[in-house]
Design brief:
- By secondary structure, the chain is mainly α.
- It has one domain.
- It is built from 13 helices and no strands.
- Helix 6 runs antiparallel to helix 11.
- The chain is globular and about 50 Å long.
- The protein starts with a helix and ends with a helix.
- Keywords: Membrane, Transmembrane, Transmembrane helix.
- It comes from Promicromonospora alba.
- This is Magnesium transporter NIPA.
């Protein structure tokens, strides 16, 4: 039995890794398309309509859709605390893709950030993989969680509208990440309810949860496009891949009881691993090649990248 659980968990982690790669490629393509159509860090409706006609953006959306599908399958196989943190690996992948696009060698800060992020995520997954159980959620708890998350998303969206520059980018991306964290938790909750026999696929509650997932996903997608228009892709990817797992893991603990029997020592280790991943993401965002080219002439970058 334990061997089967380990195999299934390994498959889920593998799918999450592929999902991270696809997400990084999707983010790079979408940002490249959106950044040409923004005005003052804000993507207008006319700009959005122009963007959706570009093949680059369409390819990015297609890759993103495939990433979402793989992510959903991974959530069917393993708990949130195992699947969600793997997504942070999209950050170093996105940095490498951007570095290849601008043909600049990643600086030492990027290498350090990638190492911290990967180490933190791998440590988190190893520690959490064997210490999690899940149970179907209560309907009232799901409704309360949706209301709280919705309020946070609205507040962050207004913060994005009221701010400029990198603050706008972070606010929009964090709002999207919070929304997507709720989506992951709902997908996991619905799958547990259906597979346990406590709910049917066509029950009113299940269909309502599906509708909420669809609406939140579309809204989160719009927020991501606004974030791409306001800042560098690494900032967007970093915000998504750090905040999304935190929200999803917290919701998994509250709604699904994941981690209820985890010893305090393991929580402390996972906290340290998360801190390392966050530090890596911040370092990556600070030294991202695309972010640097926004404020630094290419000639200076070329000179700085030489040994």
């Amino acid at each position: 039995m334990n061997d089967t659980v380990t195999l299934v968990t390994g498959i889920a982690v593998g799918l999450a890794l592929i999902d991270a790669m696809l997400f990084a490629a999707s983010a790079t393509l979408q940002h490249h398309a959106v950044s040409d159509k923004q005005a003052d860090g804000h993507l207008t409706m006319r700009g959005l309509l122009s963007v959706v006609k570009q093949r680059r953006w369409q390819a990015g959306i297609a890759l993103g859709g495939l990433a979402v599908l793989l992510h959903a399958i991974a959530l069917l196989l393993a708990p949130l605390r195992v699947v969600q943190p793997v997504g942070v690996l999209a950050v170093p992948i996105a940095v490498l893709l951007t570095a290849a696009r601008v043909r600049l060698r990643p600086p030492r800060g990027v290498v350090l950030g990638a190492a911290l992020a990967v180490t933190g995520v791998v440590s988190f997954v190893i520690v959490s993989a064997g210490s999690v159980t899940s149970h179907p959620p209560r309907g009232s708890a799901v409704v309360a969680a949706c209301l709280v998350v919705a309020a946070l998303v609205v507040l962050l969206t207004f913060a994005g509208l009221a701010s400029r520059g990198w603050l706008r980018c972070v606010a929009y991306a964090t709002a999207a990440a919070t929304a997507f964290g709720l989506v992951s938790a709902l997908v996991r909750a619905v799958s547990l309810s259906v597979t346990s026999g406590e709910a049917e696929l066509l029950d009113t509650g299940t269909l309502l949860a599906g509708a909420v997932i669809l609406v939140v996903t579309v809204g989160g997608g719009w927020l991501v496009q606004q974030a791409y228009a306001a800042g560098a892709p690494a900032v967007v990817v970093a915000s998504l891949t750090v905040v999304d797992p935190i929200v999803a893991v917290l919701l998994g603990a509250v709604l699904l009881g994941e981690g209820a029997h985890t010893p305090l020592g393991l929580w402390l280790v996972m906290g340290a691993a998360t801190a390392a991943a966050v530090a890596g993401v911040i370092t990556l965002a600070k030294h991202h090649p695309d972010a640097t080219t926004r404020a630094t002439p290419v000639e200076v970058l070329l000179e700085a990248s030489r040994p």
